[in-house]
Amino acid sequence: MNKDGVPLPESLGNKKFSGKFVVRVEPSLHRRLAAKALASGESLNAFCEKVLAKA
Fold first, then answer.
1. What's 4's DSSP letter?
2. Which of 45, 24, 38, 32 is nearest to 53 (CA)?
3. Alpha carbon distance 43, 49 (integer Å)
4. Torsion angle, alpha carbons of 13, 3, 40, 19, to 10
């Protein structure tokens, strides 16, 4: 079960994750995310991590 109480598929139960993955986005989205990260005083990575954590 994850932290929200949602059961994980059995195939993910014991799998180790590196904490890294690649996401391809449109250049315009990349620009918007970078601008929002800069405006909030965060790195693009930190900003995206915060946004993804809310998903």
1. T
2. 45
3. 10
4. -20
For 48: left if phi > 0, alpha if psi spans -120 to 50, otherwise beta; the answer is: alpha
The tens place of each residue's pLDDT in the chain, 55 residues long, gives 556 777 767 777 778 889 999 999 999 999 999 999 999 999 999 999 999 999 8
Q: Which pair of tokens denotes residue 19?
A: 């904490």
Kindly report whether the global pTM for this prediction surpasses the value 0.90: no
Rounded Cα distance, 2 and 7, in Å = 6
